[in-house]
Amino acid sequence: MVEIWLPYGKSDVSVKVRDEDLLGIVQMNEKTGSVNPRADIEKAVRSPLGRKRLSEIAHSDDTAVIVMGMSEPKVVVPVLDSVLKELRLAAVKDSNVTVLVGSKVGQSTNREQIFSLVTENHREVKTVLHDHLARDAVFLGETSSGIAIYVNKAFAESKVRLLVGEISVDCLTAYDGGPETLLQGAAGIQTVRQCYAKIVDSNSKVGVTEQNPVFEDMRRIAEVARVDYAVDAVLNSRRELVAAFAGGLNDVFLQGVRLIDELCKVQTDRKAEVAVVSAGGVPYDTDLYGAYRAIHTALDLVKKDGALVFVAECAGGFGNRIFYEWMTRFRDSKEMENEIKKNFEIGAEVAYFLSKALEYSRIYLVSVLPDYYANGVFRMRTARTVNAALQLAIRAVGKDSKILVVPHGSNIVPIVPSAS
Fold first, then answer.
1. What is the pTM of this model?
2. What H or E segment, with its residue span, contains residue 245?
3. Using only C-alpha atoms, what is the Rg of the chain?
């Protein structure tokens, strides 16, 4: 018997699997965190990719906006310090700098904490919580694909425009960071809705940018919005800085994607009848809406009509009202797909994805979410412990089932041979 520990909220829980049944443990290609994050960030900012130094781009009478899409406090502070230092070298006054603190629309985040960090460390800088619903959003034009681009007024009125983000894999946008930072930290709700509505396209895939309509729209939006400079960080599963990149948006994003692919894209020999998947603990399993990402990637590890044991504390509940409402309004993913094409709402994307997942595989949820929601609304089977859920899954799929275990489901993209 093999005992494997899985992150669950702020603690860990164990699952026991018979040696002969364990197909493997699917892990991130973990990298150690930086010994001196501040020095690495400063080095990246002083040696930008594909662009002059920020101190050479900006001028003394310029206004600047920094779109903050990064959520790790330990990284936010040194990044912002380095960026402001460059602006000061150009004689840009702190009072002429605005920081827009963003968040994924509809998700629970720690953006109030980031807001407080920025205001405490840089009192002269104007710090604003970006509101996607703000009525004074400024229209910048349309992309070639017809996306109407509305942005925060402070972004539109600033001469120098910067994005600060974290590159990670994402089931909605292919990758977070890069052009996605603009969507979460400066875009109006009309723009976000138009862009996200293309999730029903078969080319909309996690960790894939080529021919991905959501990613292509984000890239075009950033081009029209004229982003001058970007800083992106790559973190490991412990939320430690692995590397930082600064410079031109596309150059920075490509370097970050290469590194995150090394960490997250994991080769596996075959699919299993059962997968036991943890979202990765806090902050990944704060609520069901945010934790879903781990289900999305883990489905590639499970055979059709197999079973997935999903380990996510969800202390914050289900996390998004529209997600909840769509799961009660629509019977299946096809109905949702038709509605998304006509009237997309933020939160509908996870309802759609979860419905498709349930049509593909049984899902057993281990969480603190009441059964009324977990089973009655979100249609998942439930169990009190991981081992109890695993036994239910094996009984349903077959006693000779092969099992894969994934401790950090939110941070992997499985690469499985197509024949399996």
1. 0.90
2. strand 241-247
3. 22
